[in-house]
Design goal:
Blueprint lengths: L4 H17 L3 H21 L5 H16 L9
Helix pairs in contact: 1-2, 2-3
């Protein structure tokens, strides 16, 4: 069985979601950051019919990265 790039992105996305549920925020952020890197590579070179799939992942990644708890600023 060959795993495509789209399958890999789905797996990393789902893994990030699982880490969020387990409150493993650092691991979740790492998953979403890696997914964002992959998306940026594929976004420019993808076929037009795949753009909507990539945009769905991108929307989820941006939402998750921006909603991650941030450490308190050091006084």
């Amino acid at each position: 069985v060959q795993i495509t790039a789209l399958h890999s992105m789905a797996i990393v996305n789902n893994l990030g979601q699982l880490y969020l549920k387990l409150e493993e925020h650092d691991k979740a952020k790492e998953c979403f950051s890696n997914l964002l890197k992959i998306l940026m590579i594929f976004k420019d070179g993808s076929e037009p019919e795949c753009q909507y799939l990539l945009e769905g992942f991108l929307s989820n990644v941006i939402t998750q990265i921006l909603s991650q708890p941030q450490p308190a600023p050091v006084a």
